[in-house]
Amino acid sequence: xxxxxxxxxxxxxxxxxxxxxxxxxxxxxxxxxxxxxxxxxxxxxxxxxxxxxxxxxxxxxxxxxxxxxxxxxxxxxxxxxxxxxxxxxxxxxxxxxxxxxxxxxxxxxxxxxxxxxxxxxxxxxxxxxxxxxxxxxxxxxxxxxxxxxxxxxxxxxxxxxxxxxxxxxxxxxxxxxxxxxxxxxxxxxxxxxxxxxxxxxxxxxxxxxxxxxxxxxxxxxxxxxxxxxxxxxxxxxxxxxxxxxxxxxxxxxxxxxxxxxxxxxxxxxxxxxxxxxxxxxxxxxxxxxxxxxxxxxxxxxxxxxxxxxxxxxxxxxxxxxxxxxxxxxxxxxxxxxxxxxxxxxxxxxxxxxxxxxxxxxxxxxxxxxxxxxxxxxxxxxxxxxxxxxxxxxxxxxxxxxxxxxxxxxxxxxxxxxxxxxxxxxxxxxxxxxxxxxxxxxxxxxxxxxxxxxxxxxxxxxxxxxxxxxxxxxxxxxxxxxxxxxxxxxxxxxxxxxxxxxxxxxxxxxxxxxxxxxxxxxxxxxxxxxxxxxxxxxxxxxxxxxxxxxxxxxxxxxxxxxxxxxxxxxxxxxxxxxxxxxxxxxxxxxxxxxxxxxxxxxxxxxxxxxxxxxxxxxxxxxxxxxxxxxxxxxxxxxxxxxxxxxxxxxxxxxxxxxxxxxxxxxxxxxxxxxxxxxxxxxxxxxxxxxxxxxxxxxxxxxxxxxxxxxxxxxxxxxx
Length: 718
Prior knowledge:
By secondary structure, this protein is an alpha+beta fold. Among the domains are: 1-235, Methylamine Dehydrogenase, Chain H (7 Propeller); 619-716, Cytochrome c-like domain (Cytochrome Bc1 Complex, Chain D, domain 2, Orthogonal Bundle), CATH 1.10.760.10. Helix content is 12%, strand content 29%. Strands 1-9-8-7-6 form a five-stranded antiparallel β-sheet, with no helix packed on it. It has a five-stranded antiparallel β-sheet with strand order 26-27-28-30-29, with no helix packed on it. A hairpin with a 2-residue loop joins strand 26 (355-362) and strand 27. The longest helix has 16 residues, at 619-634. The protein is globular.
């Protein structure tokens, strides 16, 4: 590829005004790392770089930090580098001894890390791509380049000449050349704009294509790498695409996602059999993806990660083993799913809270990053049955002869009470240490030197781990050896990344938000519909409108603490009451006490509003926005969408009704409305252009084409 030919080229794949999916901070919500940066760093060109030989500050082992690992990469000599988004650190880990060798303060909040030779490329939430040289065991800053708003993932080309960075809020993929010599600067090769919020990406070297997935909705963009143009945009039935990986032979792609059934209400039968929300991996041929005329679903295979009344809420990153078994991190239940090559059998291995990333170190050794427990889990596959331990029962699972759930109660207006839910709390331990006894005659194995104890260092259930403890267990994978097939076994060893302070309410609430055990059977978490605190953009019949049969658009939770009353019909004046109703009617899983509900509310209130889809870029643009603002006020749009939150406490009849005859709705906030790819309560409008032009939503008069453009431009600036 001729980099000079592509230098500084701006390639617009689709019109920038195309309405993308409502998007979120894709590194996972947390109080101190939320950011609403503009599309470009103020005063810094995207080609601007910094060169330095700065050694990053060393973090002492006793420093108490919330780390929140989000990415892990293999280095030489069995070392791993872990990117911690909350602490803003890089942890260097010896994977043999499972010890943290050192930890360094990066300066920003990393969202992803990949290896490029002896260097690392790190995307930081603050809006930059950072190159880190690992020299003499120490990370040193090589260069930095500004990136569009909130870069989430980075991938390196097969020849190492360039990398691609997905920026979610900016809805943009940026291609950057990688310097080969000291003193050279990276160069922006192309900027590809998309009509959705990109996150996951997968390089197809043989096809010279890049696949970029919608973080919330069903779309996948196919980008040609010879000219950096969008070739096509395909749709996969589902939402929350979190994993893209190649299959054996390079002919198929495996996509992890969830599928929300918009017409299935949360009845017991609909939930426990995965009819309301399915947790899945889809196998799709590469040829059908890159051929825009081919049927995407022709020859595809739907692999149920959750099955037989056992959900697998929030499947995340996936990786294909050499033997054809697919490894899927199950974020909502803290497990690693090992899917058999036939796609039928799935073995669940407990890890830590919310596993989000997995890296391969050898053919039979993998490392899983558990974001919400600040832990790593090493998975070693082997064929030695002598070290097999009893598989511990995973929270939320039940044996075949157990009745997993009681008969569902009728839906009524009874709310939670403190006394009713005090007995069963979130503080329940994830693991029973008695299940980790060895099956050998003398109770010894090569792993016997590790401690088998709780993640928590004290009996106080409110404290997080304060010691680098270990947990070990082994599992049989796949067929029984008695069938004449060699059985595969896996040993899971979990370690802490360091000392953690006591959790604040919002931090405890964050763990609840991503916990699929809050749903019946573990099929979904709050995150499943309100993706990373935002929305899947789909319809769901959650019963929050007082009954079933009228599915509504899943509302964003960004800035939700400021936008009461809650739900489409504005029934709840207090946010904790809305949360309780959701837990009771929609989730129907593990019950929470009042403090847990308060923690969950604290987390929701910590999520900031979304940034503007299109902030002003020039003086001429600001004039257009100002004219649109004037129209917004004079047309009396402020009657329903008022104040800095652009909503109202009342309900209004705006000429729209649902299937149950409901006519009055509480107006949703217009902050970040430009990110939506579906509007109104039932998604009947696909864009702001359609709302203003076709539906003429509550407009007192006809608008000229110029006025429509001005009003839409103003709305996209909110």
